[in-house]
Amino acid sequence: MALLLLVLAAVAFGGWGAWRSFGPQPANAGERLRDQGDRIEALEQQVATLGRSDQISRQANADLQGTLAERDEEIASLRADIAFYERFVGATAQRHGLSLHELVLEPQRDPQLWHFVATLTQNLNRGAVNTGRLQLSVEASEDGRMRKLPWSELRQQQDAPGVAYSFKYFQQVEGDIVLPVGVKPVRLIVRLVPASGPPVEQSLTWSDATAPAAATKPVGD
Question: Pfam families, from UniProt (predicted)?
């Protein structure tokens, strides 16, 4: 009986498979399959397009955020400049002679090379042109002892001339200095030598000149 049932089941299963393979199909079965294939292809293309569009939108948004951040920094810098100019040339501005307003040092690829930008000001003699030269010297520690590095050594040139300046109210002058290997700079001394009148010296610590906020921090006497 069990063998008979097994044979009948095998025959029934085979008949069902034959009917699936050779039985009548709907008249439009091929067309429906093609339509479904076309729809699948269209949907896949749509998904790919949406994916690319989303990627482009994300990149555009990131670029926009970066641009906005740059503009915010630029606006803040311009506002700081305007505030400085108003304090400096306004009717109530405090009068002072030739002086160093700020000095910023930036490291270069060569660890011994530094680029400096110095802002010079004066509003005591309004309309008068101030001309002269700027020189730097550095107080540094070497082997536990302090030494002073003169301008000629920082410029690696004997009798090196200072950086020329000529302005009525303010001017930025810049240049490069080279530190000897093995020294640890501690203090900067800025010497302004005008074409007429006594020299002016101001100093600041090396850490103040190299700090990120140095560009917005006036130099003290």
Answer: DUF6776
